[in-house]
Design goal:
Elements (H helix, E strand, L loop, with lengths): L7 H7 L13 H11 L11 E6 L2 H10 L5 H4 L2 E8 L8 H10 L4 H9 L1 H8 L3 H22 L3 E5 L4 H7 L8 E10 L13 H4 L8
Antiparallel strand pairs: 1-2, 2-4, 3-4
Helix pairs in contact: 1-8, 2-8, 3-9
The structure holds flavin mononucleotide.
């Protein structure tokens, strides 16, 4: 039977962090769709200064589980996505980005000139915020992954509990200081939908006009 599509609101409401998975692999077309949707995430200046390393091999997943202090998710899930943030991506010519946006009409000459100047990135560098900027973009992509996974009938789990040096080694970037690990997201199938752990009432976390906690 064809699976019923779910809305974004529903995906947001039903997504849970799933820590245990069935061993079933994620079919290639489903994984391709998930990765394609992930890369639809926005990034500052459309710099796309984040990438994903897809780890499916048992040895790779074992290494990631060890890097994550023995957490079981990378071992049990058939796929672990490692989100990599590149704080130097803006230094490259990136002419393909500007050309695509000019061609589609998304950017006018003025915006393209601003992009080409990299003024904001120079300012980020001055304030030592380049890494933070790239990590933000990677985290937004990971959020897209989790919601897209839910819509595709996949369970997922974000993970921030790991040793960055060991994760970098596991994906072969131990000698790349400009690259940071933002987050890991495990993806697969699960029989058990964990209960919603709950959220505080929005009155405690949403304010209007002025912060008020
Ligand atoms: C950035 C981030 C990092 C996380 N890291 C871990 C982790 O390393 N291990 C883990 O078991 N859960 C991790 N979690 C899952 C949270 O515990 C979980 O999102 C939270 O309890 C709310 O549950 P829910 O995702 O089911 O709504 C992480 C969540 C986020 C957003």
């Amino acid at each position: 039977m064809e699976k019923q599509a779910i809305s974004v609101s529903e995906a947001i409401r039903v997504r849970r962090t799933v820590r245990h998975y069935r061993p079933d692999p994620v079919p290639a077309p489903v994984l391709d769709e998930l990765l394609d949707l992930t890369m639809q995430a926005p990034s500052a200046w459309n710099m796309q200064d984040r990438s994903v390393v897809v780890v499916t091999s048992e040895s790779g997943r074992r290494e990631l589980s060890a890097a994550a202090f023995g957490q079981p998710q990378p071992l049990e899930a058939p796929v672990t996505l490692v989100f990599v943030a590149d704080s130097t991506a803006w230094e490259a010519p990136n002419t393909d980005i500007a050309e695509q946006a000019r061609h589609s009409g998304a950017w006018n000459a003025e915006f393209t000139a601003l992009f080409d100047s990299r003024a904001e990135f120079h300012e980020l560098r001055r304030r030592d915020l380049l890494r933070e900027n790239a990590v933000k973009n990677a985290m937004i992509a990971a959020t897209y992954t989790m919601l897209a996974a839910t819509a595709l009938g996949l369970a997922s789990a974000p993970m921030n509990g790991w040793d960055p040096d060991l994760v970098k080694k596991a994906i072969g970037i131990e000698d790349r200081p400009e690259l940071a690990i933002a987050v890991l997201v495990t993806v697969g199938y699960s029989d058990a939908a964990p209960p919603h752990p709950g959220r505080r009432a929005v009155e405690r976390t949403v304010f209007f006009e002025r912060f008020a906690a």
